[in-house]
Amino acid sequence: MHAARSRVYITGLGPISAFGVGIDPLWSALVEGRSAIRAISGWDASGFTCSAAAQLAPELYEVKTAVPKSYRKATKVMARDIEFAVGAAAEAVRDSGLVTKATEGATPTLPPDRVGCHIGAGLIAADIDELSGALATSRRADGTFDIAHWGESGMTNLTPLWLLKYLPNMLACHVTIIHDCQGPSNTITCNEASAGLSIGESMRVLQRGAADLCLSGGAETRVHPMGVLRQIFAQRLAPTPDGVDPATLVRPFDARAAGTILGEGGGILVVETEASARSRSATPIAELAGFGASQCFCSDTVGVAPENGDEIADAIDQALSEAKLTPADIDAIIPFGSGIPAIDRIESAALHRAFGTRARAMPIIQITPFVGNCGAGAGAMAVTIAAQALRTQRLPARINTIGCTELDANACASRPAALKSILVTTTSLGGQNAAIVVRALA
Amino acid sequence: MSTAPRIVITGMGWVTPLGHDLATVWSKLMTSQSGMAPIDRFDARTFPTTFAAQVRDFDWTRFVNDPSIHSGAGLNTCFALGAARQAWQQSGLNAWKGLNPRRAGIYLGAGEGVLDTPNYVASNIAGWDPSANKVDGRKWAETALRVMTASKEIEQEPNMPVSHLAREFGLRGPAYNCLTACAASTQAIGEACSILKRGDADLMLSGGTHTMIHMLGVTGFNRLTALSTSKGDPTKASRPFDRDREGFVMGEGSGMVVLETLDHARSRGAQPIAEIVGYGSSADAFRITDIQPEGRGAAASMSMALREAGLEPHARRDDGRPMIDYISAHGTSTKENDSIETRAVKRVFGDLAKDIPMSSVKSMLGHLIAAAGAVELITCVLAIEKQMLPPTINYSNPDLDLDLDYVPNVARPAKIDRCLSNSFGFGGQNDTLIVSRFDSSSSDSRAS
Questions:
Q1: Is the pLDDT score of B447 beyond 80?
Q2: Chain B partners of A299 at a C-beta cutoff of 8 Å?
């Protein structure tokens, strides 16, 4: 017999995407139907069959602006993934009206040991220019690598803290230091399901009373040579032919879909117990009403092509059951919707199993066609958009997809809609799934 | 007050530098043996550190039903398959057909896979354009697409051990991987217990697996000056709590446990081996490189676990023993960790700290990074089972400030019913588990 569980509210949104930091630029683009996907800039990606992405331009975000002055030095040891998490956390904290240690001289709203932090992360790749430049110092005349030279002196061309730029838990580490979060903290690394699972874990931590508030979400960039290479190897990326606008290429649930395009970013949300929100007079944006998690059966083991959507539907069932909702109570769905045909297929099957005949009529909200596939950050972006749609009682626009008959997923303009509950699902390369029900405040 | 189900361990397994089964490794720990030797996985002869504790002579194919399914698996996944199969077997699940896969989940603290170093390095060197002082993307892609391979890249994703284990054992319930550096598998087991307590699954496979014994792994830790660079006998290099400790020694491997609610274990006639009674997790929120000097976060994590277990750290039991009989220290053999951990234990247990033996099996196994916590939890369970304390070897010169009972050099018998296992990660992640002898006479659920 469980005690009555505390409600868990979202009280701050901190998305970070190619549109910049914060909900406003992201939401405007989604409502207006503008995609941020274009040819990769900053490095030459023309050697790959996919050379487009949704990138966050340097003029839209600089990590130094997101940290207190005393912490600026530490930004030198942040991989780009970490920079995103730090910027997203600062924005979420600001949006929620919370005062943390980051506001120098002010008294924090909450005792540090009651603040947790769950930030999903990806497999962070070493900065290729930094590492290659160092490795090249140990190149023999014939171009081969001299490991003896590397061990003796070559490696000293890497900064002493080099490794710490790339440990996945450094996203949460920097965020916990900046905002002084001393409660439970975790780094879930399940590919595209990382942020969804992290938000679920924050819910559980809050429900069991181990913290009152958590910074929760995820961030990643794969828009670098190793990231693109790995995604091409995993058969996930849409080719980008010359003369075709890459912004039109991510077409979730469209028969012509040929893959996804990478994005970068993700988001952090402030999530807290009802009691905590009330005691600091915070305005809740939406409620995290239900959560479920599961593992797909993948005959290929690594989950490039899971067999079916049964376990995604299991996670949906769990989330609905916790929220005490039936399929009829869900007003819109944000699936992973990546445009990867094998994954679109199992997601569609899962929605049909979970929602029966209603599946065809349930509006799908797209994210990937606008901001690309943000990997470990994707689920946080989805929960953020769900909260914003509930708050504004509006469905964003959809682009690119045409001719889909299985789901309500075809391109259309944004429109006002009566929305009480939105379901978010994420599914990963590797087969881990999370499902989250986000509910409007009564 | 509500009650939560009791969580029991019904199976354990490990693959370590001292062997690939519970009995062999335990007997080596009891006889103070070391797994350290010169690195032979790559040519490390000119590196600041030339030795590590490698897993040797390990044939993972013996542990799986059909090796072809896992043919691309990385070394970390192979270790995990070996450890998990042992746990599965000990828990009687090999022979039991009643498992509901949707109620069986997995929570690992697995590290990333090993880089395809030669081809990765070759691509980076081929792509390097010295005149521009950066990589030529086109040249890099041309080489990388030619020399690197899909499976070796995909298998590096840190969730791949989860995916392989889920496939091997037919798990379709909640599935997670966390990677909180050296604390990962302790945290994974703690969170797996929380999932079971909440009723979201009946059974969880949990633990960790990792190897960083590869060129860039050793490079990274050498640059941080975290590793022992001893030029003497490698078996003497890991010396936790000793005055002359000067860094950790890398190990590798995997530890796995099968966790179940007591009801589920009973319903299928499985024998509980031990019970997880407490879990604590905290963040230092201090610095990316240093541990909070007072051990604030470490103490918070231990205190949280003790609170969950309903144990008062300053109290003694009726027979005079402290509430904890043995602490499996994080005990890395770095100056900083061992001092601060000692301080944190004193902070939590006060005057009783000196009465609680605390040792570090990292003196013998090396540091298994993400897998360390799971392996050390298993040593705690075996300590309870065998009534023996594993030693801290290479303890020859006491450090004046470190004055606890570190079980120096030789294993010794003791009355052991309850152990506490600590794991602290780079970046200030702290996790603690408390494991207890299974007491079949007490109630089926615990107050929470």
A1: no
A2: 167
User: For chain A, how many structural domains are there in total?
Assistant: 1
> b vs e for B140-173, b when ≥16 Cβ sit within 10 Å of the residue's Cβ?
bbbbbeeebebbbbbbbbbbbbbbbbbbbbebbb
Listed as own residue / partner, the contacts of B398-402 with beta carbons closer than 8 Å and 24 or more positions apart are B398/B242, B398/B243, B399/B241, B399/B242, B399/B243, B399/B245, B399/B338, B399/B339, B400/B243, B401/B339, B401/B342, B402/B241, B402/B338, B402/B339, B402/B342
Cα(A89)–Cα(A107) distance, integer angstroms: 18
CA distances in angstroms from A361 to A309, A311, A316, A320, B404, listed in the order given: 19, 22, 17, 18, 67
The answer to whether the Cβ–Cβ distance between A183 and B429 falls below 8 Å is: no
A172, B181 contact by CB (below 8 A): no
Q: Is B443 on the interface with A (CB under 8 A)?
A: no
Beta carbon pairs, A and B, within 8 Å: 306
CA distance A201 to A197: 6
Task: Round to whole Å and give the CA distance between B213 and A174.
Answer: 26
Top-level class of domain B3-115+156-447: alpha beta
Q: Considering the domain boundaries, does residue A121 fall inside one?
A: yes
- CATH code: domain of residue A293: 3.40.47.10
For chain B, the structural domain boundaries read 3-115+156-447, 118-151
Give domain status of residue A310, yes or no.
yes
Q: How far is A152 from chain B (nearest CA, A)?
A: 5
Among A133, A163, A428, whose Cβ lies nearest the Cβ of B159? A428
Catalytic residue among B78, B178, B182, B193: B182
pLDDT tens-digit series, residues B374-389: 999 999 999 999 999 9
pLDDT beyond 50 at B339: yes
Look up the ipTM and state it. 0.97
At B349 the three-state DSSP class reads helix
